[in-house]
Amino acid sequence: MASLCLASDALLTDCSSLMFDYACLDRPIVVHTGDWDVYAATRGVYFDLRAFPPGAVAAGEEELIDVFASGRWRDSGSGRLRAAFRERFCPYDDGHAAERVVRRVVLGETERLPAFVPLAERRPVPSAAAALARSPLATVPQPSGPRPVTESR
After folding, report:
1. Distances (CA, A) of 88 to 37, 93, 121, 147
2. Beta-sheet pairing, 11-13 with 56-58
3. Would you say residue 134 has pLDDT above 60?
4. Which sign does the torsion angle of CA 97, 79, 63, 88 carry?
5. Cα dist. 51→4, 13, 85, 133 in Å?
6. Structure confidence at residue 56 (pLDDT)
7. What was the pLDDT predicted at 150?
8. 97: exposed, middle or buried (C-beta count within 10 Å: 0-12, 13-18, 19+)?
9. Which of 1, 13, 59, 94 could form a disulfide with 117 if both were Cys (CB 3.0 to 4.6 A apart)?
10. Closest Cα partner for 34 from 63, 75, 69?
11. Residues 74, 10: contact at Cβ < 8 Å?
12. Residue 148, exposed/middle/buried by CB under 10 A (0-12, 13-18, 19+)?
């Protein structure tokens, strides 16, 4: 999963906990909440992801298409949501969090623990899309209306 996350320009997820790790990359996250009510009722949740999302939220397929077609997936509003999400859930995920826990809890060390790197000072690896100096090679067109789903065999 780590390789896929590093290779991607954005994360499209439902309620997967991967979003918490992906947020450390400071790349766009889009949450599809089409089955939120069923998911929350059957599996339980710690907080309402729709109220505190890591980026753009789409409740259905048409809205999901619009998020990508309109560019909302990477606009400043999604960036602000991601920044707030990172502050809430990633303040100690600086690449040395596990080492600090093992040294402190398992080994009992209290001296010379790796220094904590504040969120504002971290520089995540940029995505491939961020390195492009030109527009994307393709865009997602707006749907002209509902399209029937058909099976082909």
Report:
1. 24, 11, 16, 39
2. unpaired
3. no
4. positive
5. 27, 16, 11, 34
6. 96
7. 66
8. middle
9. 94
10. 63
11. yes
12. exposed
Distance between CA 88 and CA 33 in Å, rounded? 20
What does the H/E/C string look like for the chain?
Answer: CHHHHHHCCCEEECCCCHHHHHHHHCCCEEEECCCHHHHHHHHCCCCCCCCCCCCEEECCHHHHHHHHHHCHHHCHHHHHHHHHHHHHHCCCCCCCHHHHHHHHHHCCCCCCCCCCCCHHHCCCCCCHHHHCCCCCCCCCCCCCCCCCCCCCC
pLDDT in tens, 53-111: 999 999 999 999 999 999 999 999 999 999 999 999 999 999 899 999 999 999 999 99
pLDDT computed for residue 2 by the predictor: 87
More confident residue, 35 or 78: 78
Q: What is the mean pLDDT of residues 30-57?
A: 84
Contacts with 153 (C-beta within 8 Å, 6 or more apart), sequence order: none
Q: How many CB atoms lie within 10 A of CB 147?
A: 8
